[in-house]
Amino acid sequence: MKDLKYWIWLSILNLRPIEKIVLLEKYKNPKNIFKLKEKDLPDKIKSEVLNENNKKVLDEKLNLIDKEKIDVINIFDERYPNRLKNIYGFPIVLYARGNLDLLNKEYNVSIVGCRDCSNYGKEIAYKLSYNLSKKDIVIVSGMAKGIDTFSHLGALSANKNTIAVLGSGIDYIYPKENKKLYERILSEGGLIISEYVARNDSSKRFFPYEE
Q: Are strands 93-98 and 71-74 parallel, antiparallel or unpaired?
């Protein structure tokens, strides 16, 4: 992808998605933003954009992307899901592994719920996911414990694809016991996506880790 390192750099800045979108609207591409001088930047975001540490880790991120065969999809990429652009502050980059054709399928349904759910909740999530998948509706969930896990399992049991949207970096499987589920989603034609390239790019504000 053209200017890959600049897209990665912009994606890891600790700015709100809407702030990144505004920068792109003004400067057209992340390479132009990367080259901005202090005098060109608003005080509110100046320190983060000029933070040299964000630039120093780019080789590490590029190596990870190459090693793990991660696809990088920016908002100008035709593969970027059109419906995602309807939300406020959509991510400027998606990191993905797996079947990218699922991103713009005509029909999909998100099923999410609590981690510490009842057996009844697990059963309903599984059955609902299974039956919707049989009608070629792609199930989207978060691969967390509880409802999310059983939603993915329902789709897989129907021999259909499913999408897992992670709240952590795409290289970080959480919870750890879902490693087999992560691998199964990929091996059976599904998709894993995240707005974070690596675990340490994600924020506890969005996804509370439990070690």
A: antiparallel
